[in-house]
Amino acid sequence: MDEGAPVALTGTSPLAVPDIEEVRRDARAALDVVTATTRALDAAGLAGPSALPGWSRSHVLAHVTAIGTAMARQAEHAAHGELVEVYDGGAAGREAGIQEGAHRSVAEHVAALEALAERLDAAWPGPGSAGWDAPVTYRDGTVADALVAWWREVRIHAVDLDAGIGLDTWPRPLGLHLLDFLGVRLTDDVVVEVVGQPASFVVGPAGLRTATEPGSIPHADAQEENAPGSGAPRAVVVRGRLTDIAAWLAGRTPAVEPVAHRADAAASLPEIGPWPSPYSPPKENPGPPKENRSHAR
Question: Over pLDDT 70: what percentage of the chain?
Fold first, then answer.
């Protein structure tokens, strides 16, 4: 693979494919911010509540270290042509690791995060390397997918710390990625109007598309013709800033809540389902919607 050539991502819309080297740099920058923020905490701040129900900031930091270690492990084994489970010990090992890690002191968390940064730097392939396409167990994807997963997790959980890192730290490529990756949480497609952007998107179980693609807007004929009595439900339109819409779809609290409407009437934001599993890609639409807020997995 030539340096600078695009890196394919499994099941990703062309609209949401980020530059893999930019992802690597931004993920490292996010981890550095998390580490600096952690270093500034005292014991009470560490034990204080995060933005995730039932988790302290220490739980969030333990999870950040755990998911980063898991993705480094995926890349390390892939470099040798090996496949390993996402978490050592599976889902039970993941939960046990978080609970154990939540007992760390501030100094112990900082040391773990600094060691993780070095391990991740060593684990990722070099620019243009064919190693990005090596298979991993995570969602039956590749090393590139593992990096993007880490980027997503560290950026989201940095905000979850509720320690001064805001949604304004999410770059635009992350917002587009979240709309694409998390569209599976919606039962039906919705039209997304991003403030300040002329083109609309369609977000749903099939991922992210532009609203100009033929057949992309549900029941577009009925909408365009404003056909009364047609019986075809019109698509819900969600409007807001990209980061706010992405935060809502991630089950987080937006800075300004997006608004929704159907035709000319105000509507409730659609319910969202569970977070996509880290173990395999979804094969069909998720089940009944669950509570809006969910821990990123």
Answer: 85
Q: Are residues 107 and 231 in the same domain?
A: no
Could you write out the DSSP letters of every residue in 48-73? SB-SSTT-BHHHHHHHHHHHHHHHHH
Residue 293 counted as domain residue:
no
* Distance from C-alpha of 94 to C-alpha of 113, rounded to nearest angstrom: 17
Tokens 């339109």 correspond to what residue? 237
Q: What is the pLDDT of residues 165-217, one digit of tens each?
A: 999 999 999 999 999 999 999 999 999 999 998 889 999 999 999 987 655 55
In a domain, 27, yes or no: yes
Residue 238: what pLDDT? Answer: 97
Per the structure, the complete domain to which residue 199 belongs is given by 176-267
- For residues 206 and 233, state if they share a domain: yes
Same domain, 88 and 182: no
User: According to DSSP H, which parts of the chain are helical?
Assistant: 20-39, 43-47, 57-78, 90-101, 106-123, 143-160, 172-181, 220-225, 242-249
φ/ψ region of 61 (left if φ > 0, alpha if ψ in -120 to 50, else beta) reads alpha
